[in-house]
Write a structure and sequence with these properties.
By secondary structure, the protein is of the alpha+beta class. It has helices at residues 38-45, 186-189, 194-204, 217-220, 223-239; strands spanning 21-23, 26-28, 35-37, 52-55, 65-74, 83-84, 86-89, 101-103, 109-110, 116-124, 134-141, 169-175.
Length: 260
């Protein structure tokens, strides 16, 4: 199986403040056991949406699928038997089971002795992903073992645009479309293309994952230098009669701020 680097806004579970007991990031309450997506609690607290956005376009052309691991956790104490959990795709999903995705294991559990477990989902690289971003909206459902009444933690700051959904909901948006990755800044590098991205990585000896995540302040400070390297390379090639073209036949250019 060929996996690729996922684009993900972030999975941050530090700094969680709870009035109840806390143990290694898991919630312990003297209340009925609740099940929830483990990343969601910390992410809403820090003001981050928990949706996962990814594309096959940045990976190997021969990749046919990838497996996503979704951590789930429960409040309360571990039990000495496996406890089944119920997961359903809701009606807003556009991804089709058996065509675009499948569960690695149909029977899902919080296993004996555990407060945290993992749901594995295989996403398939079908031809229609090159034209459409598909949505897989998942909900953890209540059953005889778990309730779903746990509320998300209030974020650290007020933000009218912040979407805080239930901690029992997780959405995966996936495609095979080469969308600009989180670290790409158009005013330095111009319009995003796979060919340009690979050239910048090669010229600056960057790991392929560099632009695929949100950049730190230090990394952002390097972007002007990387863009100048691209700009000078393209100018030199053009002056030598070796103009660099994009896949669509247009001339490759750098961003408007990459002129030095």
């Amino acid at each position: 199986m060929n996996n690729f680097k996922n684009l993900i806004t972030g999975v941050i579970l530090s700094g969680m403040i709870l009035s109840s007991c806390k143990k290694e990031g898991l919630l312990l309450y003297n209340a009925p056991d609740n099940i929830y997506f483990y990343p969601k609690m910390g992410m809403t607290y820090l003001g981050v949406n928990n949706d996962l956005d990814l594309t096959f376009a940045y990976g190997s052309p021969s990749a046919t699928d990838t497996v996503i691991a979704l951590p789930v956790a429960v409040t309360g104490s571990p039990q000495n038997t496996d406890r089944p959990l119920l997961l359903k795709a809701d009606s807003s999903s556009t991804a089709i089971a058996g065509i675009h995705y499948e569960l690695i294991k149909e029977s899902l559990f919080i296993h004996a002795g555990k407060q945290q477990d993992t749901i594995l989902i295989r996403l398939k690289r079908t031809a229609d992903l090159s034209e459409t971003v598909f949505r897989l909206s998942l909900n953890l459902m209540a059953n005889e073992y778990f309730e779903t009444t746990l509320k998300p933690m209030a974020p650290l700051y007020d933000d009218p645009g912040l979407r805080i959904g239930p901690v029992t909901h997780y959405q995966i948006n996936f495609s095979d479309i080469a969308l600009p990755p989180p670290g790409w800044q158009e005013y330095y590098f111009g319009t995003f293309t796979i060919k340009k991205w690979e050239l910048i990585n090669s010229l600056n000896r960057l790991d392929r994952s560099f632009f695929l995540n949100q950049l730190s302040y230090e990394q952002q400070g390097l972007l002007p230098a990387y863009s100048i390297v691209l700009y000078r390379y393209l100018i030199e090639k053009g002056e030598n009669g070796e103009t660099v073209y994009e896949e669509d036949g247009s001339e490759m250019t750098a961003g408007e701020f990459a002129t030095n």
